[in-house]
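Entry 14. Structure prediction run on the chain below.
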Amino acid sequence: MTFNRYICFCAILESIGAIACMLMALIGNNLLGVIVAAIAALLWIGGEVWGMTVFRRQNPRRDELSDMHQGSAMQFALVSLVGILVIVGFIYTTLNLIDRSIVHIIPPMLLPALAMCALAISDIRYLWLEHDAGTE
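Output returned:
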């Protein structure tokens, strides 16, 4: 397994983790939400363990271009996450200002879902930059 395939595999698993957290945020804390999120989380955890055992860390890919791409991808994900958090905060603040009779609370599982999404965005952006550079 090449390093880029490993990163692609991680992006898929992180997307599954984000979906699991988002399902918990949308479905709620009832039994169905817990079951659906648990199944998705177990798939994600199993995939991470499998990926770590298949990909040998003995020869990781290290070069300057790859390091630049990883740094750029992490910066892109961080800026995206901060932007999304600002938008979510603005929406919930506005909802609370408009209708003071109902307190609108951000679902607790929304923040882990956004964090997992940021991880997936970082990996996808890294693969995009690697593809544009023509590295394998």
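Helices lie at 3-27, 31-54, 64-98, 110-133.
Filed with the rest of this week's runs.
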